[in-house]
Amino acid sequence: GAVVSQHPSWVICKSGTSVKIECRSLDFQATTMFWYRQFPKQSLMLMATSNEGSKATYEQGVEKDKFLINHASLTLSTLTVTSAHPEDSSFYICSATSGGRETQYFGPGTRLLVL
Amino acid sequence: AQSVTQPDIHITVSEGASLELRCNYSYGATPYLFWYVQSPGQGLQLLLKYFSGDTLVQGIKGFEAEFKRSQSSFNLRKPSVHWSDAAEYFCAVAGAEGGFKTIFGAGTRLFVKA
Fold it and tell me: Chain-centre distance of CA B98, in angstroms?
């Protein structure tokens, strides 16, 4: 149980385009989802927290207009990287919690490469 | 402020040897503590967690961790390492004080030599 999927697993795009990443909880209802980015050989940095049906809460330094997060249902959250640039290339990981918010279940990650 | 320190950037152990990965945390209230493992290009897998109760926690894949409040530590141990344990290990802390945001340590990369 508690499986989280991400799609796509990797994406290559041209600079200036927008990319959407989906995060789905497959066998539970995720009241809260988190989005992280991870640079090579570094730890995970929390970008934002999203609760179903409400606006996401962004961490300091994360541009909410650049990283659009939508949590429209209890099983789906999306992260859209708008007008992507090479510096946005990273590994993006989502996680989800159900009920008790202490334990997060992580997706497999999406590797984004912006050319 | 909440923080997690993993003093060792990387560790190399021989297959079959014992392992201990260090983790120290700074947290005002009683923390929830986690250890995750990440294989290259993969997401994170939860090894074990501590919320309350017995301070020695058993996890998957033969791992265990001990919560020591006096030392603000939550070290991960395994009595006999297998080559498949080579990966990146992250210690993390969360709790009500931080709005349940999970704070991750920088990670320790484990290398296993034959």
Answer: 19
Query: Is residue A103 within 8 angstroms of chain B, CB to CB?
Result: yes
Give me the sign of the Cα torsion angle B30, B45, B5, B11: positive
Nearest CA to B40 among A25, A4, A23, A109? A109
Question: What phi and psi, each to the nearest 5 degrees, are found at residue A23?
Answer: -130, 125
Strands A110-114 and A10-13: parallel
pLDDT value of position B27: 85
Q: Does A42 touch chain B (CB under 8 A)?
A: yes
pLDDT at A102: 65
Determine contact, residues A45/A35, Cβ cutoff 8 Å. no
Chain A nearest CA to B81, separation (Å): 22
Output the six-digit token pair for A32. 């809260």
The yes-or-no verdict on residue A35 having pLDDT over 90 is: yes
pLDDT digits (tens, 9 = 90+) for A3-17: 899 999 999 999 999
DSSP A27: S
Q: Which residues contact A32 (CB under 8 A, 6 or more apart)?
A: A49, A50, A51, A52, A96, A97, A101, B100
Task: Give the Cα separation of B48 and B65 in Å (integer).
Answer: 8
**pLDDT tens readout for residues B2-52:** 889 999 999 999 999 999 999 999 987 778 999 999 988 788 899 999 988
CA distance B26 to B29: 9
Say if A5 is an interface residue toward chain B (CB within 8 Å).
no
